[in-house]
Amino acid sequence: MTDDDPTFRIPQHPTRRYRRRGGVEYDGGTVFSVRPTRDLDEATLVKLVRSILDRQPYRYGDWFDLPMPLYLVHDDVTGDTFRVAIRDGVVELHVLPETEPDGLRAFYHRLAANFEGDWTVTHRNG
């Protein structure tokens, strides 16, 4: 799916599964890929995403020691929680079980408003 003004309709929410030895896993779900129409390096995308997350209405954590930027994000206005990852020149919005379109749409609009250029949005189901 590609859309000029994406609705972020979520075709499939993931199922949360708690492992016996601790931790949580997600089965299925939807990931939205938000790609700038001109190439941006990872450092520029990280700076852009962090500049948005560092302002209201967001609270986020990036405590994972991973080889890519990954943030657990909560929008205090919409009440939505989702993950944001930056990989291969794309900002990925990972839907969690309670994520609704409003929070994803708000993040996308803030991203687009803070960058001079166009974006394409696609999604895939996991």
Overall pLDDT? 90
Silhouette: globular
Strand order of the largest sheet: 4-5-6-7-3-8
Strand content: 35-45%
Helical segment count: 2
Summing up helix and strand content along with how strands pair, one would put the structural category as alpha+beta
Describe the structure.
It contains two helices and eight strands, in the order βββαββββαβ. The chain is an alpha+beta fold and 126 residues long. The radius of gyration is 14 Å and the shape is globular. The model has no long low-confidence stretch (mean pLDDT 90).
Topology (SSEs and partners):
Elements lengths: L14 E4 L5 E4 L2 E7 L5 H12 L4 E4 L8 E6 L5 E7 L2 E6 L5 H13 L5 E7 L1
Antiparallel strand pairs: 1-2, 3-7, 3-8, 4-5, 5-6, 6-7
Briefly characterize the structure.
The protein is of the alpha+beta class and 126 residues long. It has helices spanning 42-53, 101-113; strands at 15-18, 24-27, 30-36, 58-61, 70-75, 81-87, 90-95, 119-125. The strands form two sheets. A six-stranded antiparallel sheet has the order 4-5-6-7-3-8, with helices on one face. Strands 1-2 form a two-stranded antiparallel sheet.
Which tags fit this structure?
single chain, 126 residues, alpha+beta, six-stranded antiparallel sheet, two-stranded antiparallel sheet, 2 helices, 8 strands, globular
